[in-house]
Write a structure and sequence with these properties.
Elements: H1 3-13, E1 18-24, H2 33-43, E2 48-51, H3 62-73, H4 78-89, E3 97-101, H5 103-109, H6 111-121, E4 125-128, H7 137-145, E5 149-150, E6 153-154, H8 160-169, E7 174-177, H9 190-201, E8 208-211, H10 217-224, E9 229-232, H11 234-242, H12 248-264
Parallel strand pairs: 1-2, 1-9, 2-3, 3-4, 4-5, 6-7, 7-8, 8-9
């Protein structure tokens, strides 16, 4: 049983929802990535999505784009991100880590090498924004062969046929994009989400996490009532950007604790 499944099973037993924070590895600098990972866990994160810096993050809004730019200025690449996970795993063997990013760095490394390295360092899932299930069967086969969960996005515009395809190939959880557009854009239409989730449940047996546009505790609480996990990315990355190197860990911890308390009220 994967760490992701174990985590969601435990949460379900205790009638709790997952809090899934995201930030970009290497932002604001590589030395703070592992301390931030540990701080997120201590603040109440159940699963962590760790962004792999990329020069053309087409699904991301300006906030996360700038995070990639800051990390790339420190020359942080996929190899470094995997090393960071390994360092984190040296003292945390239970919190699932999902790498989130784009296919180009993985293609450059090679999917088999990447999947093997993920297994070695303790990565639990991989979400490649630009590798939909329709186009990456061989790539995802490498992941599943090494026990890594391929995680997919579903959009508000996804057809029943596409939802069924995702349900067939996904492992771990499914990430529902709550609004049209890039990360950090727009305002949530909670009524539309509430209407969509039962349609997804017809096909998807895995936990469903909802992300994009969740910017505060009140929104996190409202979304948590509708799904199995709440994904918060741009808001955390903005907190990193607005902080100094001296107070970034404390500021992010404070924010995630507030989100944790809100999700626990669902």
């Amino acid at each position: 049983m994967s760490r992701i499944q174990t985590t969601f099973d435990k949460l379900k037993q205790h009638k709790r929802k997952a809090l899934i924070p995201f930030f970009t590895a290497g932002d604001p600098n590589p030395a703070l990535t592992v301390p931030l990972l540990h701080a997120l866990v201590e603040a109440g994160a159940d699963v962590i999505e760790l962004g792999v810096p990329f020069s053309d993050p087409m699904a991301d809004g300006p906030t996360i784009q700038r995070a990639s730019e800051r990390a790339l200025k420190h020359h942080v690449g996929l190899h470094h991100v995997l090393d960071m996970v390994a360092e984190f795993r040296s003292s945390n063997s239970s919190t699932p880590i999902v790498l989130m990013g784009y296919g180009n760095p993985i293609e450059a490394m090679g999917w088999e090498t990447f999947a093997q390295r993920c297994a070695e360092v303790g990565v639990d899932g991989v979400l490649t924004v630009d590798f939909p299930p329709e186009e990456g069967h061989e790539a995802f086969a490498h992941l599943t062969r090494h026990g890594i969960d391929p995680i997919f996005l579903i959009a508000p515009t996804s057809s029943d046929a596409r939802v069924a395809r995702v349900a067939k190939q996904a492992r771990g959880y499914v990430y529902y994009v709550s609004l049209k557009g890039v990360t950090g854009a727009g305002h949530l239409d909670l009524a539309a989400i509430e209407q969509k989730i039962p349609q997804l449940r017809k096909h998807i047996q895995l936990p469903i996490g909802i992300g994009f546009g969740i910017r505060d505790a009140a929104t996190a609480l409202a979304v948590a009532k509708l799904c199995d996990g709440v994904v918060v990315g741009s808001r955390i990355v903005q907190e990193i950007e607005d902080s100094t190197g001296q107070n970034v860990v404390a500021n992010v911890s404070k924010l995630v604790k507030e989100l944790r308390q809100a999700v626990d009220r669902a």
